[in-house]
Recover the amino acids of this structure.
């Protein structure tokens, strides 16, 4: 699939639609919104990306939340059902990693959960390794945390 990935404003209608679709999918998997901590917002997201297919349709997104100390957290990674298995998620992840390097960051972290085995497999395949829970997730029984060095 031919994909274009660009920085996009948090409030962009396509960005909002993708985040809403992600939230609906996660609520179905977990039965409710179980995300620990403060929800990401325009105030704490350094970079928000939207992937578009050849026709210009928004098919995926991802964001970086700065953590300090040369680290950032991957947030709101999502790809529409129709674009799954086409390489869009890998392209978004690689673009987030490139953006992080451009900001001088050395480590990316993320949190997912047990109802997302597809996400766990994806991140492990892409070189992310399990780590101790961090930040908002330290006391979250349902959180699985991963990280990857960008060095």
């Amino acid at each position: 699939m031919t994909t274009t990935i660009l920085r996009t404003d948090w409030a962009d209608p396509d960005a909002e639609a993708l985040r809403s679709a992600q939230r609906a999918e996660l609520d179905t998997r977990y039965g409710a919104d179980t995300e620990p901590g403060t929800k990401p917002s325009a105030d704490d997201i350094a970079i928000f990306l939207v992937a578009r297919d050849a026709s210009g349709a928004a098919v995926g997104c991802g964001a970086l939340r700065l953590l300090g100390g040369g680290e950032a957290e991957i947030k709101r990674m999502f790809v529409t059902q129709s674009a799954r298995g086409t390489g869009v998620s890998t392209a978004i992840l690689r673009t987030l990693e490139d953006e992080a390097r451009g900001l001088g960051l050395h480590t990316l972290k993320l949190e997912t959960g047990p109802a997302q085995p597809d996400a766990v497999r994806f991140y492990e395949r892409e070189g992310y390794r399990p780590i101790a829970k961090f930040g908002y997730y330290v006391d979250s029984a349902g959180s699985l945390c991963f990280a990857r060095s960008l060095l």
Notes: The first helix runs from residue 13 to 30. The chain has a mean pLDDT of 96. The beta strands are 4-7, 47-52, 58-68, 71-79, 107-112, 129-131, 144-149. Helices lie at 13-30, 88-102, 117-125.
